[in-house]
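As noted in the main text, all predictions were made from sequence alone. Below is one such record, for Choline/glycine/proline betaine transport protein.
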Amino acid sequence: MVTTLKKGIIFPSLIFILGISFISVFFPQVTEQLLNSIKQFIFVNLNWIYIWSVTIFVIFLVYLTFSDYGKIKLGRNDSKPEYSFFSWMSMLFAAGMGIGLMYFGVAEPMQHYSSEAFASGHYINRAKNAQLYTFFHWGIHAWAIYAVVGLSLAYFTYRYRLPLSLRSCFYPLLKNKINGNWGNAIDVFALCSTFFGITTTLGFGVVQINSGLQILHVIPENSFTYQVIIVAVLVSLSVLSAVSGVDKGIKILSNVNIISVICLLLFVLFLGPTVYVIASFTEGLGNYINSFFSLTFNTHIYEKDTLPWFYDWTILYWAWWISWSPYVGLFIAKISKGRTIREFIMAVLVLPTVFNFIWMSVFGNSAIWFDLTTAKGALSQLASNPDMLMFRFLDYLPLTTLISFVVIGIIIIFFVTSADSGIFVMNSIATENAPKSPKWQMVFWGILLAALALLLLNAGGLKALQTMTLITALPFALIMIVFIVSLMKALVIDRNYYEKDFSASSIPWTGVIWKQRLKQIVSFKDLPAVEHFIHHTVKSAFTELKDEFMNNGIEAKLNTWDDPAAVEIEIRHDVVNNFVYGVKSHSKTISESVIKDDNLPDIDESKTYYPKAYFGDAREGYDVQYFTKDELISDVLKHYERFLEIISDEGNEMFISINAGKR
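Prediction:
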């Protein structure tokens, strides 16, 4: 059977996944107690690691956004985004938090509102705290976790042309060792973390869908039999979507889902307590901004009564987002080629955060308002049952049955978009991002997910697996700090490479032929004129230069491709990118005001052509139409001198050698 799976990754991963899963199935209570003890020790004694890690992530991303590094593209300098902005946002949002919003949109604000940690306060303060902490847990800090992993992966994958794998983020530190056992160990960790996260989400998502169908009397009970059927349907859809690829299934489902979610959001907003929701959102946003730094650094050490709540919510959330970040980060990186670092950070941090705030305000604050007025406390009594709470909340809105079915449909699509992208990512990790994998591998991951989720659900071992996932977040938080160090080291080299100036020996224009240059400046060329310049002046200069390189023992060649509007000189180097200096015809439209300007020579056409230089490393070129043959030769030589100076600098070895022979 043909396979692209890598033995060094797949076998250790399967042994660990099956081992942990079967221990959780056969010894669920013992396993859960043991893992809970470990988790509790970490949350109580090492919670400061989570606090400082997440804080560092936020500060680092804000720094990159406003620094010169923000202009660097995730790919070559001439890279273009593969997806429209809407599709890009839809996919990263659906993969990142979609199903969580459906599960916690009503449940989390209501649970904070009903929590004993805030029970002593007036209901107004409890409502404000519920919104504030919900914003905190679903805001910039959460998305910063995903953004650090996604940015690191996208940068090293598309800028350095390394595999889309967590091992690639260690390249500046480990160099070629990432291709050995160290790299395999990193990918095994990422694969297991992704698998456990999706498995637990599948299990809990199935329970919510089952509860919703029971409330709507579609099925008679919340039983394991119906859960098996639901899992079979969901996983089948996920596998089908994953097999069709990112450009089809995942993209289409994500677009459909985000439109459905917006329609549901508007329905609840305008048919619920509209004025209350808008006013509370406005006040809540201001409260969040004012409290941002105190929330960020707050460890509740002086508030003993709220410490248990702090461990069970804030620390658990940071651990949960971190444990999910390998999967979400990989998927976000996959769809982000061609974006600048600044665009990536702003889009990943700000837009989903704002949408989350609107969503939580519309659903959470509406639920609190209904609980205070119409429901008379009935919703707060269900706070501990989040599986049913969303559907009971809908009882207080018009068209309850219809909207409940819509909610179930959205949950299903959200789950499918999470699972199909998860299957895609797991296969990518296990194959070291092989370009084409047989379809049976996608089916294999889907069946494995379904089988283990059902086993754990039936045996009661799902919570143990969830706890195991949360525990792995601690070492991965430290690994993410290393990502930042590695990324920063690479960015410094990257910027120095592209911003390095020419040496002082560069030859500027002379005034010898200034009359000819003036005539060229005020004239506009057509395509034949540019082709004539390239064929006679540029090609002649490159030919003479190539011969002289050959005389000095340097192999050089001319590339023309039988195109009269393009020519380049190329010098091959064995351990780095080839040196390339080319000239190609470009066009631009002339302003109508210039065409009509009486103080310029007559212009017959609205478009002018000019010869533009380009380089092998995708730096921005420039117009060379005013260069003489000797000046062109001089210009090539100064670029070649710059090239040799860069490759001879040991500090740049990492950046240039990774792309050897890849153009």
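The CA atoms of residues 199 and 453 lie 5 Å apart. The domain at 7-495 is CATH 1.20.1740 (Amino acid/polyamine transporter I). These features were considered when defining construct boundaries for the mutagenesis experiments described in Section 2.9.
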